[in-house]
Amino acid sequence: MKFGMNLLLWTTQMEEKMLPVLEKIKAMGFDGVEVPIFDVNPAKWQAWSKRLDDIGLERIAVTFCGAEFNAISPEISTRQQALERNQLAVECTQALGATLLTGPYHSALGVFTGKGATEQEWAWSIEHTQKMAEKAKNSGVMLGIEYLNRFENYLLTSAADTVRYVQDVNHPSCQMMYDTFHANIEEKDLAASITSSAKRLVHVQISENDRSTPGKGHINWKAIFDALTAIQYDGWLSIEAFGLTPPDLASAAHIYRRMFTSEDQLASEGLAFLKSEIKNRTTIACP
């Protein structure tokens, strides 16, 4: 199992000023980072691949789309733009030296129609992701589809939805990820939702109920870690948390007050929490 830190706690755009942050993340004991990809210029990410190699951090790519790149828009031009943009995101993932691209790119974040997804919207998204998955296959990249809570999207809002979605895409380069923040809102049984996803699960994001330090809120972590142990999950566990900066992300994530002492505190305590939970279960399983 590997431990990662999502860089959205600090930035939505990778810049030189992130280098000291990355070095600090490495020193804390993280294996890698989740890198936000919104600038879909592969040349930029080749440079960051070298920097991350030099620091000794592995990486996972993460992206999401706004209204202008909505794979389920009724406008064919918008759907085409979404496909072109997301295929470029796959190329950026490859350039970054990552083999996994996660996120809710199946549709647009924060765009609603006032009702649930239609069969046509589902079909548009499936077609989009099938084409994206073929690009991913040729690039050596796996897609990790993320479901969100009902306040952020309306296409995929549960593990059951996402398992069915991946089955309909029916491509070896398309699987799913699991985010504890969204699951905590939407799932009736956290353990059951993990168990039902076991065959499709390629990534797990660890996020507290208030998006701050893992282990300091009210999520039922025992149920989550017991279930991950039971299905013998051995992939990445990555911390995802948000603060008041950057302002654009804080606004999108509806973060209006500071809920942790510092980014360093959140990352270091969060990592200690993850390692403790895994160690405890490993010790129990292997006395």
Question: How would you describe what is shown here?
Answer:
With 287 residues, the chain is α/β, with parallel strands linked by helices. 46% of the residues lie in helices and 14% in strands. The chain is built from ten helices and eight strands. The protein has helices at residues 19-28, 42-55, 76-96, 119-139, 159-169, 180-186, 190-197, 221-230, 247-252, 263-285; strands at 2-6, 32-36, 58-62, 100-103, 142-145, 174-179, 201-206, 236-239. The chain has an eight-stranded parallel beta barrel, surrounded by six helices. α1 links the parallel β1 and β2.
Protein topology:
Layout: E1 2-6, H1 19-28, E2 32-36, H2 42-55, E3 58-62, H3 76-96, E4 100-103, H4 119-139, E5 142-145, H5 159-169, E6 174-179, H6 180-186, H7 190-197, E7 201-206, H8 221-230, E8 236-239, H9 247-252, H10 263-285
Parallel strand pairs: 1-2, 1-8, 2-3, 3-4, 4-5, 5-6, 6-7, 7-8
Give me some keywords for this one.
single chain; 287 residues; alpha/beta; 8-stranded parallel barrel; 46% helix; 14% strand
Distance between the termini: 19 Å
* Tally of separate helices: 10
Helix/strand order, N-terminal first: EHEHEHEHEHEHHEHEHH
Number of strands: 8
Mean pLDDT: 96
Low-pLDDT windows of residues: none
What shape does the CA trace take? globular
Trace the largest sheet across and list its strands: 1-2-3-4-5-6-7-8
Short description:
The protein has 287 residues and is α/β, with parallel strands linked by helices. It has helices at residues 19-28, 42-55, 76-96, 119-139, 159-169, 180-186, 190-197, 221-230, 247-252, 263-285; strands at residues 2-6, 32-36, 58-62, 100-103, 142-145, 174-179, 201-206, 236-239.
